[in-house]
Amino acid sequence: MARVTIRIDDALYERLQRRARKVGVSVAELLRPAIDQAADPRSGYVYTTQDEILSCVLQTLSIVAASVRRRSPETLEQGMADAKALLEAKGLLGPEQQP
Fold first, then answer.
1. Is the pTM of this model over 0.85?
2. Element (H, E) at 95
């Protein structure tokens, strides 16, 4: 098996390590799918599909949040707190966003 070496800053490596630990894989295992997709000439830009899905999800959630805010600000506040806790548990919040 070939080996690839890249240099990244320490903060990025620490974030990769945290994310890999959260999902129970090594940093190499975490990165292999992205590298594989980047090498596939049929896939285009690596993040296109994920960005499009994320965009649709964010638009939908914005509409739902606006509706909930109008009906029950307390429910929206609790939902946002619950969402933040879930994102934190999955390692999807940066250090500056964590409590």
1. no
2. none
Tokens encoding 68: 């909930």
DSSP 77: H
Helix ranges (H only) for 46-72 are 48-71
- Tell me the domain boundaries of the chain: 10-39, 47-90
Cβ pair 20, 8 in contact under 8 A:
no
pLDDT tens track for 1-33: 889 999 999 999 999 999 999 889 999 999 998
CA distances (Å), origin 54, targets 17, 49, 57, 80: 23, 9, 5, 17
24 φ/ψ sector (left φ>0, alpha ψ -120 to 50, else beta): left
With contact defined as beta carbons under 8 Å apart, do 89 and 83 qualify? no
